[in-house]
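Allow me, if you will, to draw on your knowledge of protein folds for a short while. I have a record of one protein: its chain in single-letter code and its fold written as discrete structure tokens. The full record is reproduced below for your convenience:
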Amino acid sequence: MTKFPYLRQDFAASIVVFLVAVPLCVGVAVASGVPAELGLVTGIVGGLVTGFMPGSSLQVSGPAAGLTVLVFEAVSEFGVSALGVIVLAAGLLQLAMGFLKVGRWFRAISVSVVEGMLCGIGLVIIAGQIYAAAGLKAPKTGVGKIAGLPGAFVDAVSSTEALASLAIGAGTIAVILLWKRMPKAAQAVPGALAAVVLATVATLAFSLPVATVKVEGLLGVIRPPGTEALGELASPAIWGTILAFTLIASAESLFSAAAVDRLHDGPRTEYNKEMIAQGAGNTVCGLLGALPMTAVIVRSSANVNAGAKTKASRVLHGVWLLLFAAAMPWALALIPIPALAGILVHAGWKLIPFRQVASLWRSHRGEALILVVTAVSIVAVNMFEGVLIGLALSVVKTAWEASKVKLEVIDKGAGPIQAYLSGNATFLRLPKILDSLEALPQDRPVELDLSGLHHLDHACRTALDNWAERHSVPGTEPVRMTSGAEPLEMASGT
């Protein structure tokens, strides 16, 4: 026991994490449009491969609701056979970034972009899983899913089967929400698992006409990428999806690591090593044709709260997932799909940062705007482009705030007009600078002092050259520019 002083705590925590992971692994797989067992495969790899590696000792990896939308889009466009290739390439890119020590730079990504990404994902998940809960086919686009909800409700009300399916989904959500009010002894069983068990029992007891999970067996779903699938890498279109997987999975994992670090007093996350661990896990998942993995905050927080002390808990949770998938595959076939949809609707709701939006709106409206635009872009366009739009807005906002410039004009009525530029002169402030300079009299000598500038970009330098060349009317001394004690070599029109 001295070699494993925390074995009892880690063993107990691993059971809790396993019980939390089972319905989420299956639910994410079904929602992603792939066999349920692939979600369990990714969970197993997250425990047995990533779990063994250094990085963040207590966070747990597996298939994440945050990637559901992206995986569904990829499977729809390229097919299930190409999923392994996409995940494999993303894993190798993560490994490269980890070895190149890029991991820590993900902490520089604007929190508003990440929150906006999660919000957009949450909205698409909720909208899509409402259709699944009713046993209806969802439209392909995010906008289509949301716009089609009223019609879907009308269709569901007129169908006995759809109403029964919706009742199971709604009941699942109700159990998850109310489970926190149960006695502590009952809460030892995770709410999501209790909800799935109760939904399964209700479906069987009342013989409800509800769709259940299709089972193929663990070995039947493992499909290593073949030559044809590897040939997809020659297509430029697939690389956009690979980059999206890499960016989003890495950001979600490393932000999760930062959140988990705040939950415990143990060793802090080593971000580059965690990136390598995630890359190794996704590489193995790709070779098995499974779902991509990320660190999952739901499982990670359950691990910490259950008293885990070392990485042994997450490794053991992978063992329990493997035993379950190998010994009890028949149990998956009993699970009603609307119950899994209910779990994901609840998970999607938790991804929407209501409090953060309200707080940002009060203190940093620009950041709140970035969050909202990122979320709306993901719903309106797609995951990858939505995140890129958010990142671009974040960069523009930062550049705008950093490029504060002040123009002070002193006109003593006689002699040259003196103008002083100070701050950071970038192209973003160029219209304001030129408007002020062009308003100066053209029949008076002008001296422009640039010594107060900390930064002058090429666009501003060129624009000031052009302004100086054309500003003064004939017969007037040309514009004189100085930087410190020496005049700048600027065009003067002579």
Summary: Confidence is low (pLDDT under 50) at residues 485-494. The CA atoms of residues 416 and 444 lie 6 Å apart.
